[in-house]
Amino acid sequence: MMREASIERMTKETDIRMTLGLDGRGATVVETGIPFFDHMLTAFGRHGLFDLNLIAQGDLEVDAHHTVEDCGIVLGQAFANALGDRAGITRFGNALIPMDEALVLAAVDISGRGQLHWDVALPIEFIGTFDTSLAKEFFIALCTNAGITMHIRSLTGENSHHIIEAASKAAARALAEAVAIDARTQGAIPSTKGTL
Q1: Residue 145 maps to which CATH number?
Q2: Model pTM above 0.85
């Protein structure tokens, strides 16, 4: 059974179409009009081994906020839909990713309680045209809409590009571990409550 989802979101600010495959090979097509954000999402798909096709048009003449946040919303909804009732998943995952001088930790619980805990110091405000504060907004939207608790913490780093890219890869690897099917559960939902 392939765990996949397709989501479309159209508002007065953005028009987004996405497909997500959880059991993929990391094939990505990403076009948001924001070059560094495309790079971030491509790294996310590739290193999580998620097949991700995301085409977004947004009101970039205002700024990138609506596009970045709405892509997080749609990606979160896609994860929630693709996971279904969460039967048989590992549920927890973590990754510690180095990128040159940067070292970033991500830990995930597919708990049904969407929240982000972000402790990431970013030395500069812009990477190209990308406002670095939007990285946090993206992950908030992703976690809230997916029902995922995620901690992302930069342990060291001086280069904002390296830090955000390491955060994207760490989040992807942690999520890949958490969504993986554990055959030992025999399809049980990984909770003493019986539901997530």
Answers
A1: 3.30.230.40
A2: yes
